[in-house]
Design a protein that fits this description.
This protein is an alpha/beta fold. 41% of the residues lie in helices and 16% in strands. The chain has two domains: 140 residues, Glycogen Phosphorylase B (Rossmann fold, 3-Layer(aba) Sandwich); 157 residues, Glycogen Phosphorylase B (Rossmann fold, 3-Layer(aba) Sandwich).
Length: 317
């Protein structure tokens, strides 16, 4: 098939949407299809559209369906689609869902945010990750806790830094954050935090290889988002065996499972600080996190993601 894959432009090529779209293009090509990627539908013929983000790709979906009403659209629902725009600007989001022949969620609880009318079209494809190219060796100089994600409101990006301020004086925790600041205000806040908090280090936008090196020397990773569609960084940390401390909301619980022991309430700095203390002082807690992640890791195997796309495409025929 000729497939056009629409993904919105972002401030960096390393946005979650762009990274996912690039991986899916590789999968679809591996399955024998011809794929072109664009940020906007240009009107050229295609047998299938795969669109990332209901709200941002709404105009492209509308144009494609107007030109080829009998050709299918597969729509991946982002976190901002189902946890933000469906409430704040519902018309384009719901119209995209209406036009799409299949909906793809990225976490097992995505169905709860999708209107009942569209749930029969919804399937879940877990984003995969490959194992580290070299053995994981947590830093011996400090207890490195990584925060991987761009600095923007929905990520609550400085929660780990603020929690580190509450740790005992002798704590060896070092918060290392990577990701681009989406606004000058977030850049200024991160710079100010570094100046006043010796346990916090922000390194800005970095390559995928640098992210993987950071994971390899991390003792844990924090994902403190207010909402998520299904963060690929959880897949990466899980496959790498890096304990995850996560805000308890659907996007994280839908990947890590309801009984995962490393949750803290959204926005609760003190609760996160308590988990960091346990991480540093309680080896049984670390082993408990590792065991729980090992049980989830098979969900994120590349072969499983490829098979899910193969089944989805076969069901369109």
């Amino acid at each position: 098939m000729r497939i056009v894959l629409i993904t919105p432009e972002g401030p960096t090529s390393r946005t979650g949407n762009r990274v996912a779209a690039s991986r899916w293009a590789r999968i679809l090509r591996r399955l024998g299809h011809k794929v072109r990627i664009g940020s906007d539908y240009d009107g050229r013929p295609a047998d299938l559209m795969v669109a990332v983000h209901a709200w941002r790709s709404a105009a492209s979906i509308e144009r494609f369906k107007a030109k080829f009403p009998d050709r299918p659209v597969v729509l991946q629902l982002s976190g901002t689609d189902i946890y933000q725009y469906i409430d704040t600007d519902p018309v384009p989001t719901l119209r995209s869902m209406e036009l799409a022949d299949r909906l793809v969620g990225l976490n097992d609880l995505a169905w709860r945010a999708v209107p009942k009318l569209f749930r029969p079209r919804l399937g879940v494809i877990h984003q995969s990750a490959v194992t580290l190219a070299y053995p994981r060796r947590p830093s011996a100089r400090a207890m490195v806790v990584s925060v991987i994600g761009h600095l923007r409101d929905v990520k609550d990006p400085l929660r780990a830094a603020e929690a580190a301020r509450l740790l005992p004086a002798g704590s060896r925790v070092s918060i290392e954050q990577v990701g681009r600041a989406y606004t000058p205000e977030w850049a200024a806040r991160a710079q100010a935090e570094m100046e006043s908090n010796q346990r916090y280090h922000w390194r800005g936008d970095v390559s995928a290889a640098t992210v993987r090196r950071l994971l390899a020397r991390s003792h844990a990773m924090v994902i403190s988002s207010l909402s998520e569609g299904g963060a690929n960084v959880i897949s990466e940390a899980t496959v790498a065996g890096v304990p995850v401390l996560a805000s308890r909301m659907d996007g994280n619980v839908g990947l890590l499972g309801p009984d995962y022991p490393g949750y803290f309430p959204v926005g609760d700095t003190r609760a996160l600080a308590r988990l960091l203390v346990r991480l540093e002082r309680e080896p049984p807690f670390v082993r408990q996190l590792g065991k729980a992640l090992a049980q989830r890791a098979p969900l994120f195997r590349p072969a499983r993601e490829i098979a899910a796309w193969r089944r989805l495409l076969a069901g369109l025929r």
